[in-house]
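Below is a filled-in request sheet from our internal design queue. Each sheet records the structural input a requester submitted and the sequence that came back. We keep these sheets so that new team members can see what a complete request looks like end to end.

REQUESTER: design group, bay 2
PRIORITY: normal
MODE: inverse folding
CHAIN LENGTH: 364
BACKBONE (tokenized):
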């Protein structure tokens, strides 16, 4: 093991203080952070392997040799340990050194890892969503990064849009969009881009195929960008010129009204099922309730899907500076689907729509 420590940065120091206070109140003497997104949130480490061992007095970051140099550049305010293949043995040693008898861990750990920790003789207490709860509200730097991720994604889409024409293949559009995102400095693509046309667009998470866009097709495009580890997620639906478009135009307008209705009701202290209901009510009243089966939105940040969940079965109180999507949809087998997805940030009395691409129906 080798050690290295640097003074803490303000943002990470504040997050760490809140975490320590939280687990102290829960009656454990130390806390182990293994979820790599939470590791980044608390330490700034952007690699793929590492864990945090936190006590009331100690801040320890452990990783392996591959990330020694990277962690020394990125991780401030933590003693850096390079472990050599037995993380459980290292954790037991740290607990003994710091006289930790009750260790809090994240409930997301594997059963095998949990079982190994228990066999060390430690009292191990899993906590669900302790750090994820802090991540629900974003600070200025996080919202700035999300805005940049949106800007990169929107600019990439604008550059690809001239290629979205009859005869273009779904997979070709998706690959072209991915290339543009990378050229906009998105180091990671947050999820597999969805380009779904015609009857394929009736599947909310359809994969791009070799299918060519045809006259009269609805075309759902769902994609996102990245900036400094933070993601964006948005969807626009286009309609190809053709015959018998009236029903497709009708469901588009219903989804657009549902999107706008939900957004107009977002403010602090609103409950997440209420926001979901504002979108769902519009679609239900129009007679298409059976064709909208997913939630209205989800949080976006270090993960493209995180808390809060804007749906009927997750009761969360909306708080200022939460960032999440609003994405109602209608999906009719044999006809096609429409989804319109924006990202919003909750402000003092309402919300700010961060996405800026037009939402009125475009027939191309």
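RETURNED SEQUENCE:
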């Amino acid at each position: 093991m080798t050690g290295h420590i640097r003074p803490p940065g303000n943002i990470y120091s504040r997050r760490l203080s809140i975490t320590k206070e939280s687990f102290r109140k829960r009656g454990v003497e130390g806390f182990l952070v293994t979820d790599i997104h939470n590791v980044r949130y608390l330490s700034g480490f952007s690699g793929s392997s590492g864990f945090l061992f936190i006590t009331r007095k100690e801040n320890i970051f452990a990783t392996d040799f591959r990330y020694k140099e990277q962690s020394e550049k990125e991780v401030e305010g933590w003693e850096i340990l390079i472990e050599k293949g037995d993380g459980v043995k290292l954790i037991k040693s740290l607990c003994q050194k710091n006289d930790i008898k009750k260790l809090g861990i994240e409930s997301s750990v594997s059963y095998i890892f949990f079982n190994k920790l228990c066999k060390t003789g430690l009292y191990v207490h899993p906590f669900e969503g302790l750090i994820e709860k802090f991540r629900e509200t974003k600070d200025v730097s996080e919202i700035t990064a999300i805005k940049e991720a949106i800007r990169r994604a929107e600019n990439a889409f604008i550059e690809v849009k001239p290629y979205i024409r009859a005869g273009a293949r779904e997979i070709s559009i998706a690959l072209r969009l991915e290339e543009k995102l990378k050229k906009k400095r998105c180091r990671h693509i947050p999820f597999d881009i969805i380009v779904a046309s015609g009857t394929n667009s009736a599947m909310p998470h359809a994969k791009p195929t070799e299918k060519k866009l045809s006259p009269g097709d609805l075309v759902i495009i769902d994609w996102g960008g990245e900036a400094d580890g933070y993601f964006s997620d948005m969807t626009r639906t286009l309609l190809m010129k053709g015959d018998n478009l009236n029903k497709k135009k009708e469901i588009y307008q219903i989804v657009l009204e549902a999107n706008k209705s939900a957004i107009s009701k977002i403010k602090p202290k609103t409950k997440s099922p209420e926001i979901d209901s504002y979108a769902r009510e519009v679609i239900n009243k129009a007679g298409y309730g059976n064709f909208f089966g997913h939630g209205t939105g989800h949080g976006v940040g270090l993960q493209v899907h995180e808390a809060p969940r804007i749906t009927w079965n997750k009761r969360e109180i909306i708080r200022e500076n939460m960032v999440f999507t609003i994405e109602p949809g209608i999906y009719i087998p044999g006809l096609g689907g429409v989804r319109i997805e924006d990202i919003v940030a909750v402000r003092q009395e309402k919300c700010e729509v961060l996405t800026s691409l037009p939402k009125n129906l475009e027939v191309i």
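SHEET NOTES:
- The two ends are 61 Å apart (CA to CA).
- The longest strand covers residues 218-223.
FILED BY: M.R.
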